[in-house]
Specification:
Strand order of the largest sheet: 1-2-3-4
Strand content: 15-25%
Number of domains: 1
Shape: elongated
Length: 154
Amino acid sequence: MDWIVWLAIALIIIAVIIWILLRLRVKMPYEMNETILTERERSFYRILKPIADKLELQICPKVRVADIVSIKKGTKDWQKWFNKIRSKHVDFLLCDYDMNIVLLLELDDSSHDSERAKKNDEFKNRLFGERLVRIRSLKEDVEAVLVSALKKLP
């Protein structure tokens, strides 16, 4: 009968320890988004998908600039240059089937009219050059714009 008392005490102690650990555990303030794209981006994706399929290109949405751009080895002030790209992304990246980067797409809207956005856009324009295609309206002939951009590439 003695072992039953000790077992009960041990179980109570374990339960109290678990309760304390759960109470001390800090809840993270995050929640999962339902989609990676805004409604406008999703609308554009629906336009882009059949065109990309026809051109045999893969679509990668919201790609971080730091994942597609490297800073040259030996660059002075490496951290300063990294800070300029670490929090930026491109709306869509078009790759071939081997995931080689072909074009970068930015879906522009009125939010790109602010001075801060204009500076960010100019930075991306300089960084990506002719590979960056800007789409202002969902009513544009996206296929014609992409075919034209592809013809300009080396």
